[in-house]
Design brief:
Length: 75
């Protein structure tokens, strides 16, 4: 039994370097989506919102509010 498990594990490990995971959630309407930092990503997507507003929203979403107890934040 141990030998069979060892063979199974070794076989899986040998396949790990060439394994390409599937992403079924990126099918259908999500087909063709790319990582935003990818060089082929569209940089000028019409959103109907002024770019500076989106930048402010992005910045605000990662800004620690003043007076927030920082002892709970990772350093």
């Amino acid at each position: 039994m141990r030998d069979a498990e060892r063979v199974r594990l070794d076989t899986g490990l040998a396949q790990a370097d060439t394994y390409i995971p599937g992403a079924p959630m990126l099918q259908g309407e999500w087909m063709g989506i790319v990582w935003p930092a990818d060089e082929i990503a569209d940089r000028d997507i019409p959103t109907g919102v002024v770019g500076t507003v989106l930048e402010n929203i992005g910045r605000a979403s990662v800004t620690v509010p003043s007076g927030f107890v920082r002892e709970f934040l990772p350093k």
